[in-house]
Amino acid sequence: MRDLDETDLEILSLLAADARRPFSEIGERVGLSGPAVSDRITRLKESGIIEGFTVDVDRTKLRAGVPVLIDVELPVGAESADGSDALEAARERARDADAIEHVFVTAEGDLRVYARVEGLNVREWVRGLFDGVAVDDYAVTLVDEFEWTPSIEGVEFALTCAECSNTVDSEGETTRIDGEVYHFCCSSCLSRFRERYQRLEAGA
């Protein structure tokens, strides 16, 4: 299999920004024809680098609410009312809350979340959310603007061998087994993987 070149990376970047971008428009940006872009994208999908296309939904257009950042200070090693670790209990509450969109854990072991809270009494909502969890203190900051722009710019794409976990380079091999695409750093790893797969399948 071949390494990803700069054109592949640029195509991936353009698709990450807008997955519905026409191939002809991508071709104009990378200096290829529309069909040539289509061929490259097909190869990227067949090699497993592109697994699918998703929709990036702007939740601000779908749901009302007050956008806030919530910083939760948690005592180190403390337990919640049910005996579980305070940090894990707080994270679990945050994950289950519909209003919370992003959850972060700081190096100090505290929690920061971004949420869109309906209603005016945000502090009351926070108190109810973490009721029973050992919390030292918390701060609520209203958010004026919010932008979330994940990027693949500058990221090195590397495939991992399904057998030994080494990086797969241009001398590696790719094969499809029972509809799944697997990458291998060498033919020996491919052979070992295939033999083990067949033994497991035979014993199933």
What can you tell me about this protein's structure?
- The chain is of the alpha+beta class and 204 residues long.
- The chain folds into 3 domains: 1-49, Arc Repressor Mutant, subunit A (Orthogonal Bundle); 59-142, Lrp/AsnC effector binding domain/regulation of amino acid metabolism (RAM) domain (Alpha-Beta Plaits, 2-Layer Sandwich), CATH 3.30.70.920; 158-204, Ribosomal Protein L24e, Chain: T.
- The chain has 6 helices and 8 strands, in the order αααβαββαβββββα.
- The strands form 3 sheets. A 4-stranded antiparallel sheet has the order 2-3-1-4. A two-stranded antiparallel ribbon has the order 5-6.
- Strand 7 and strand 8 form a beta hairpin.
- Helix 2 (23-30) packs across helix 3.
- The longest helix is centred in the last third of the chain and has 17 residues, at 187-203.
- The radius of gyration is 24 Å and the shape is flat.
- The two termini are 32 Å apart.
Task: Please give the structural blueprint.
Layout: H1 6-17, H2 23-30, H3 34-46, E1 66-73, H4 86-96, E2 100-105, E3 111-117, H5 122-129, E4 137-142, E5 159-160, E6 167-168, E7 173-177, E8 180-184, H6 187-203
Antiparallel strand pairs: 1-3, 1-4, 2-3, 5-6, 7-8
Helix pairs in contact: 2-3
Domain HTH asnC-type: 4-67
GO molecular function, one term: DNA binding
Protein name: AsnC family transcriptional regulator
